[in-house]
Amino acid sequence: xxxxxxxxxxxxxxxxxxxxxxxxxxxxxxxxxxxxxxxxxxxxxxxxxxxxxxxxxxxxxxxxxxxxxxxxxxxxxxxxxxxxxxxxxxxxxxxxxxxxxxxxxxxxxxxxxxxxxxxxxxxxxxxxxxxxxxxxxxxxxxxxxxxxxxxxxxxxxxxxxxxxxxxxxxxxxxxxxxxxxxxxxxxxxxxxxxxxxxxxxxxxxxxxxxxxxxxxxxxxxxxxxxxxxxxxxxxxxxxxxxxxxxxxxxxxxxxxxxxxxxxxxxxxxxxxxxxxxxxxxxxxxxxxxxxxx
Length: 293
Fold this sequence. Notes:
Elements: H1 2-23, E1 28-29, E2 35-40, E3 53-61, E4 67-70, H2 71-74, E5 79-82, H3 93-97, E6 104-109, H4 111-118, E7 133-143, H5 145-157, H6 164-179, E8 191-195, E9 208-217, E10 228-233, H7 242-248, E11 256-261, E12 283-292
Antiparallel strand pairs: 1-2, 2-6, 3-4, 3-5, 3-7, 6-7, 8-11, 9-10, 9-12, 11-12
């Protein structure tokens, strides 16, 4: 019997290893710890230097090839990569230094390194179980730091205003595309991800309610480390952000829900007063009505 369990365990490990090897087929492991594969050769005349700024067409994917960011939708002008900032192990700086304009490569690296490099953040929940993250890039242009600063200055001089609401919607759609496809916002612009139902008393203005809630950013980072519990009279102004008050008014005692609140119903164009939540930031909340009196 023990031998049977050991054999079963070994077969599971073998299948896992085969699946991982299939994902890495054609890739070469660099001594710095990342994996790379040449996709196409360009016709550029020179390679970048360590102070260069690279302009890429890029697609960022989970290990299962689910795209969560790409230049087509998220950065039409390209992904700008400052090589001088990619100076730590596993960052793929070495591979970028070998490229010429027009080259295309596929890279795989550890999520912690990847999100530090390209988003200056921790690993979000949708990638927390991936051992590697994939980055497919095509090098369109190599520019100097002076040229890059000039581009920024020209953009500011022309007072080009980004459509922040559109960018926010793209961020929400990217989050939903992971495992919640098909969810649409209600007429207020709030997305309901989960909801339970009871037949108990409904929240109405003037009722004292006890509420448990916890908020997080789209990438999964918590706003507060602990779940918050408050008691207040529903309908009292400025107790909670507008989006939460709207949803609380639809709940009954004992019901729970998980929602995405757009920034215009949260902290808006200014962000939170303490600076912990930036402007134009959609938020994810879980709510539970503990009691109604």
